[in-house]
Amino acid sequence: MRVLRFVTAASLSAGLALTAGGARAASPVISGSWEVVDEKEANNFCDLFFENDGDTIVGIDGSVSGIGTGGLVNEILYFTPEVSNASRNSKSANVKQGSFSELDFRIDGATVSGGFQEVEKCSVSESVNPGKGKGNAKVTCKGDNLNAILDANEVASFQTAFSSSKRVKIKTNTNKGTWSLSITCKGTID
After folding, report:
1. Which residue in 55, 109, 146, 161 could disulfide with 74, CB within 3.0 to 4.6 Å?
2. Can you tell me the distance from the alpha carbon of 149 to that of 74, in angstroms, rounded to the nearest whole number?
């Protein structure tokens, strides 16, 4: 299941570009919503929203899923409620949140983390080039205690679900009580 939430950001406009010969309209900038399907792992999706409909709506979300313990589908969803950098031109769009994101951990469609949880040590970025049909996203998060969100069996299930993935890594250090999550999504725009 993909998350389809939007975040309202400051309004941006194309404006006019001034040249020595006078004023002319600037090149149009791309606007839209793009879903990228990972080229190596079909259960890995990332979405970038950069739309103008009165206000500019900007955001990144995505999901990854795998089979955890007991044959149950384990899914990690991420969502950026606010972006720290956003840019676009006539060919591409780039969005980044450098300090936090929201994560939701689900097993067989039911949240086991209590819904989306804000993670303060999280960086999420995505770029798309619709003309080339390509896009990529990177999620890097870390925290103090994953067991505050998930119990030990749920942590083990998520580690099992992504143990063979080259694009999703979830690690825990029980001695230090820390965890980290890394998700890479690189592929074609669907």
Report:
1. 161
2. 15
